[in-house]
Amino acid sequence: MPSRFGPHLDDTTTQFRLWAPSAKNIDLILKDREPVPMVRDEAGLWSARPDNCGPGTRYRFAIGGKAFPDPASRQQDGGTAGWSVVCAPLLPSGRKEPLRPWHETIICEVHVGTASPEGTFAGLAKRLEHFRDAGFTALEIMPVNAFPGRRNWGYDGTLIYAPAEAYGSREDLRSLVDRAHELGLCLILDVVYNHFGKFDNFIESYAPEWFDNDVETPWGKGIDFTREMVRQFYYENAGMWLGEFDFDGLRFDAIHEIQTEARDLFLGDLAKVARSVKGDAKLIIENMDNIASWLDRDAANQPKDFTAQWNDDIHHVLHYLVTGEGKNGYDEMGSDPVADLEKGLADGFIHDGEAEGGSDGTSRGEPASRLPLDAFVSYVQNHDQIGNRADSKRLPDRVSAEKLDFLHFVTMLAPQVPLFFMGEEAHLRTPFPFFVDLPEAAAAQVRAERYTQMRESFEEEVEEGDLPDPNALETFQRAVIDWTEFEQPERQAAFARFQTLASWRRERLWPLAATPCLDARTGRHGTAIVVSWIFEGGVLTMALNASDRPADLACVVNGPPITTGDFAQHGEVLRLGPWSAVAWTWTRPSEE
Fold it and tell me: How many CB atoms lie within 10 A of CB 302?
């Protein structure tokens, strides 16, 4: 893929490039040297090629005396308003084959800054064995692109090519990826292509063409993807993470907020470009619109575009069933949550495509049932569902260990790809509040916005002073994992239960999931559900009771079971205790 953005090194020097089609004059600013006038081509791309500018060169651009970093900077020195740094390309890994197939994915979502006391790439690398031993096969890393200050969730990035200085160097990040691969762990990176962060975002001042003034996202102006050069900027970014850093995949944040006319062109080509760099790339989308066609497979059962989608539907109904909270996405009056769960387990989505209105478990838009089950990523907690609560507390603070084990059982042993938030494998209670590190004037704006979001978007009745100060250091420190907590007996017991589930999935479900799923059949009695997923290689059956009361179900356990909670077989009646579930697999009889 020809590169149009960022510094381009050759044998003797560097070509500097910046897209700013409406600018009149641009200077390249080199540290301790005279400004260098840049030249514009017909596409609005400015360039300069001064002598003696190899790796390590500090540079910025300037218009009318106002200096700013390269939006495609590969490394920053001095923050998101500081110097961009010329970097030599990282050496290719030489890896030709995928580390593991997609159906063998068990994901842990991780925030680099809070996953270790060091809060760095190197600090996370030292703790990768823990995630491997828990049973995870992939880490999904929250955005690591440069952001203002020293702490951030990562979604306020302005320089999306540069790893955050707070986390370490480019080499440190690549070492993290390489170490993960040595341990058999895939790494998937979360990227944000729907907006830029508001702070230290200089692009609007010199390239207003980048934005569509008619599109407003929840975080600022929308990106204008009708422009070829804008699309190219993001294609190259995706290619860099997959190629140069050797990530195994990407998770694309909130693609439903990409609203310009060229959205479908951009997304389709984005997937194609990613797969041209890494053919087996694991490409995950977050899409509130549940557009099933983005997840379609070809005749060989390979993704045409994206591999899978974060499935809020299954989160919302499971969360509602165990907490009774009619908010955070599950607020449909008159809906039947047990029917919704039955449909979500069998089909994937509860609300298919763009279907509107309440769900009785049968709504159809673009039918999800046509998709393979591993097109859906299921979870009961993620950074949003924890951090976008007023108390920022995890599920162990709101439900019993038995209910959380039930949620883990259903999520881990259903055929959809499971995702857990770091520490969830041991029932950790570490909160994950929203945090930033900004100058006071900007921080005041963020504080006010959080109260508005909490009241209007997340339906939390908060008074002034109820929310932690996102700019306070102690708010960030509350989110840092305390690794000594894993040594507590209660945490060790929960960790062992999680390992058992992961081991069962690996030994019993993976062989089935390696073959096509031909059908999913369900039955229900009251709060009890039985789902049988019929694969070409055999059948996985799960029976569950999402209730505080025992339930009976006409069902026979005909294979070695794994269970959480209480169950008993009485003839052809299966009795399930409160918040109990049982799963088993069996080989389908030959049709010959």
Answer: 12
For the chain, give the percent of residues with pLDDT over 70. 95
Beta strand 580-586 with 538-545 is antiparallel
| Distance between first and last Cα of the chain | 51
Confidence of residue 333 (pLDDT cuts 50, 70, 90): low
Residue set of the binding site for substrate: 251-256, 312-316, 383-388
Angle at 562 between CA 556 and CA 565, to 5 degrees: 90
- Whose CA is closest to 243, among 174, 331, 171? 174
Determine phi and psi for 177, rounding to 5 degrees: -65, -45
| Whole-angstrom distance, CA of residue 328 vs CA of residue 586 | 37
**DSSP 8-state secondary structure symbol assigned to residue 341:** H
State how far the Cα of 254 lies from the Cα of 352, in Å rounded to an integer: 17
Secondary structure letter of residue 129 according to DSSP: H
> What average pLDDT is seen over the chain?
93
pLDDT band at 362 (very low <50, low <70, confident <90, very high): very low
Render pLDDT for 394-411 as a digit per residue (tens, 0 to 9): 999 999 999 999 999 999
- In 3D space, the residue among 177, 136, 184, 101 whose CA is nearest the CA of residue 422 turns out to be 136
Whose CA is closest to 390, among 320, 460, 475? 460
DSSP per-residue codes, 175-214: HHHHHHHHTT-EEEEEE--S---STT--HHHH-GGGEEEE
- What is the Cα–Cα distance from 493 to 426, expressed in whole angstroms? 8
CB 122 within 8 A of CB 172: yes
Q: At 169, list the tokens.
A: 């160097």
Residues with a known catalytic role: 253, 286
User: Count of residues for the chain?
Assistant: 592
Label the pairing between strands 417-421 and 376-378. parallel
Query: In whole angstroms, what is the distance from residue 76 CA to residue 169 CA?
Result: 9
